[in-house]
Design a protein that fits this description.
- It contains 24 helices and 14 strands.
- By secondary structure, the protein is α/β, with parallel strands linked by helices.
- The protein folds into four domains: 1-85, DNA polymerase, domain 1; 95-149, DNA polymerase, domain 1, CATH 1.10.150; 155-305, Beta Polymerase, domain 2 (2-Layer Sandwich), CATH 3.30.460; 314-557, Metal-dependent hydrolases (TIM Barrel).
- Strand 12, helix 21 and strand 13 (477-481) form a beta-alpha-beta unit.
Length: 558
C-alpha cells in the first residue's frame, strides 16, 4: 500500500463527506492529509508508527486511520460512507467540472443518481435551473459525461449510427471491388451495443495490414473473423466470407441464435454458399424477413402465413407529438419549434410543456397555461393550415392523481401523463400510479411508461400486460418515447399491444428542434416490434388527429 493509494482513500473520504454534508472540519482535515501524504519523501509503511502522528497535516485521528489502512488495506469510515452512496453518484466524481458541492446539488436537490440521468438532464436544460450551473457549465458537464461514457464499452444505437457508416465508407474506398456490409446487433437495430460487426470479402492479410496502418489494434484472428478495437476502445468484428458465400455469412451473423433455432425447427436449410440473403429466403419459399425482425421465430411463422407487417418508416410520421418549449425546460420558443416542424414537412406540432409539480423544469402554473394557450391560438391563425395542438406533460403524482384538476386538463387538446418523481417504488406502487392516470378521462397518452434510461436507469417495475389492458380499455395511447436514451415502451411489448388493439405513438420528447431527429430512432426500435403506421398516432394526418380527438371529447360527454 503506497502513499498514493493511501492518499486516494483520504481524498475520496473527504469528497464523499462533502457530498453527504457531513462535518466540514473533518472533511477538510482528510483532504489536507491526502495532500501531505502524497508529498512525503518516504513510504508511510517504512516509518515508525510513533512518528506518523507528528507528520505535517496528520494528527492522532488521521494516524489511526493510516494504521488501519496499513494493516488491512481498507478504511472502514470510507467503506461505510460508500455503502450509503449510490454507485452512480460515485461515478460522478470522474466527471470533469463536477466537484462535491455540485454533485450534492445533482443528487440531493435534483434526485439524479447516475451519469446517464445527468446527461439526460443536461439535454433537457435542467442544470441551468440550479445554483452554480450556468449554460457554459452545463455544456462542459455534458461534454465530459459523453467522453466518460464513450470509454465504458456500451453504446446507444444512436451513438454508433454515424460511426459505422464512416468506417464502412472508409474501408470500401480502400478496397474497391471487395464487398463489405454491416451485420450483427447493429443491423438488427438493437437499442444498445457493445460492438460493431461487418461481413467482408477482403482478404484477411490485406485487411489486417490496413487496420494496423489505420491505428486499429487487432485482438484476435481466426479463419472466420478478425476482432479488433480502436484507440478509444470501440470493439469491431469483421466476419470473413467468400464472394459466393457472402449471403450465407450475412444471414448467419445477423440473426440471433433463437431465430436460427426457429428457422431450423421449420425444417428450412441455410445453404453453405448463398450469394445473397434473398437467395436463402427464396429457397425457403418465404418473403425476406427484415433484419430487425430476426430476433425469434415469431416472424418466421408470419412469413409462412403471408402476414408479415408493412413496417412503419420515417415517411409515415405526419406530425411531432410531445415537445417542450422555452415555457418550461425546452430551449426554443413555441413559434420556432412550429416553424422548424413546418420546414421538415410535418402537418402539426403538439407542445406539451411540463406541469407545475415539475418545478425543476419551470412547470406551468394555471395562469401560465392560459397565457400559452392564447399564444398558440394566435400562432394557429398565422400558421394555418399547420396546427399547434395545446398539450401538457402532466405529472402523475404519488397517489396516481394528476397534477391539475379535471377542469384545467379539459382546456388542453390532449394530455400526456408521465411519472417523473419518486421513481424508486415497488411494482404495486408503480401500477397504482399508472392505472390511476390511465383511468383519468382526460389522459390521452401514457408517456415513457417505465421511466427507464438506457444504460443508466432500469426504470420502475411495471406489469406490462395489465398496463396495456388498461390503456386499451380506457382508450389511452401508449407512448414509444423516441429519445435514444429512453425508447420506452420497449419494443418487445409492441406485439402484445398490437394484438390487444392498443394505439401507440412514436414521440421524440424534443426539447429543441434538433430533437425532432430522434423520431428516426423511435422508428427503428418500433420496427423491431412490428409496428405499422395505422397503429401509430403520430402517423395520423392533421385532419385524422383532429377527428380522433373530437371523438374522444364526445365520448367523455357521454
Amino acid at each position: 500500500m503506497d502513499n498514493y493509494a493511501i492518499a486516494d482513500q483520504f481524498a475520496l473520504l473527504s469528497k464523499l463527506m462533502d457530498i453527504h454534508g457531513e462535518n466540514a472540519f473533518k472533511s477538510k482535515s482528510y483532504s489536507i492529509a491526502a495532500y501531505n501524504i502524497e508529498q512525503l519523501p518516504a513510504p508511510l509503511a517504512d516509518l515508525p508508527r510513533e512518528k506518523i502522528a507528528g507528520l505535517k497535516g496528520i494528527g492522532d485521528s488521521t494516524a489511526r486511520k493510516i494504521f488501519e489502512i496499513l494493516d488491512s488495506g481498507k478504511l472502514s469510515a470510507l467503506e461505510e460512507i460508500i455503502r450509503k452512496t449510490p454507485p452512480g453518484v460515485l461515478d460522478m466524481l470522474h466527471i470533469k467540472g463536477l466537484g462535491p458541492k455540485k454533485i450534492a446539488t445533482v443528487w440531493k436537490e435534483m434526485g439524479i443518481e447516475s451519469i446517464g440521468e445527468l446527461l439526460y438532464a443536461c439535454q433537457e436544460n435542467r442544470l441551468m435551473l440550479y445554483k452554480g450551473f450556468g449554460e457554459k457549465t452545463q455544456q462542459n458537464v455534458k461534454q465530459a459525461i459523453e467522453f466518460f461514457l464513450q470509454h465504458q464499452g456500451q453504446y446507444l444505437y444512436a451513438e454508433l449510427s454515424g460511426y459505422h457508416k464512416t468506417i464502412t465508407e472508409t474501408i470500401s474506398a480502400a478496397f474497391p471491388g471487395e464487398a463489405i456490409s454491416i451485420t450483427g446487433a447493429f443491423r438488427r437495430q438493437e437499442l444498445t451495443l457493445d460492438r460493431l460487426e461487418w461481413v467482408t470479402s477482403i482478404p484477411p492479410a490485406r485487411l489486417i495490414s490496413w487496420l494496423a496502418d489505420a491505428n486499429f489494434i487487432v485482438d484476435s484472428q481466426t479463419d472466420e473473423k478478425i476482432e479488433c478495437h480502436t484507440p478509444d476502445l470501440s470493439r469491431l468484428v469483421f466476419h470473413l466470407a467468400s464472394r459466393n458465400g457472402f449471403g450465407t455469412a450475412q444471414f448467419l451473423t445477423t440473426a440471433t441464435d433463437a431465430f436460427l433455432d426457429a428457422w431450423k425447427a421449420e425444417s428450412m436449410a441455410v445453404p453453405e454458399s448463398a450469394l445473397t440473403e434473398a437467395d436463402i429466403f427464396s429457397a425457403a419459399g418465404i418473403p425476406i424477413i427484415d433484419p430487425c425482425l430476426r430476433e425469434d421465430g415469431r416472424f418466421i411463422k408470419k412469413a409462412r402465413q403471408g402476414s408479415l407487417p408493412q413496417l412503419i418508416t420515417d415517411k409515415d410520421i405526419r406530425g411531432i407529438i410531445h415537445s417542450h418549449s422555452d415555457w418550461s425546460d425546452g430551449s426554443q420558443s413555441v413559434q420556432d419549434m412550429a416553424k422548424a416542424a413546418m420546414d421538415k414537412g410535418y402537418e402539426y406540432l403538439v407542445i406539451s410543456d411540463h406541469s407545475k409539480s415539475a418545478f425543476y423544469a419551470r412547470g406551468l402554473t394555471e395562469e401560465r397555461i392560459r397565457a400559452q394557450q392564447e399564444l398558440i391560438r394566435e400562432l394557429n391563425v398565422r400558421l394555418h393550415p399547420f396546427r399547434i395542438f395545446s398539450s401538457i406533460e402532466c405529472d402523475i403524482l404519488g397517489d396516481g392523481s394528476m397534477d391539475y384538476t379535471d377542469d384545467v386538463l379539459a382546456t388542453f387538446d390532449l394530455v400526456i401523463a408521465s411519472v417523473h418523481s419518486n421513481l424508486k417504488m415497488t411494482q404495486e406502487k408503480a401500477m397504482q400510479r399508472l392505472l390511476g392516470a390511465i383511468r383519468n378521462p382526460y389522459t390521452t397518452i401514457l408517456g415513457h411508461p417505465t421511466g427507464r434510461l438506457l444504460l443508466s436507469r432500469e426504470g420502475y417495475p411495471v406489469d406490462h400486460a395489465a398496463m396495456i389492458d388498461a390503456c386499451v380499455e380506457h382508450g389511452v395511447v401508449i407512448e414509444i418515447n423516441a429519445h435514444p436514451r429512453r425508447l420506452d415502451l420497449h419494443w418487445t411489448w409492441i406485439p402484445e399491444a398490437l394484438e390487444k388493439g392498443a394505439l401507440l405513438s412514436i414521440d421524440p420528447d424534443a426539447h429543441a428542434v434538433e430533437g425532432y431527429a430522434d423520431v428516426h430512432y423511435g422508428i427503428l426500435a418500433s420496427q423491431k416490434g412490428g409496428l405499422t403506421a395505422k397503429s401509430n398516432l403520430s402517423s395520423f394526418t392533421r385532419a385524422e388527429l383532429e377527428a380522433w380527438l373530437d371523438a374522444r371529447r364526445e365520448s367523455r360527454r357521454h
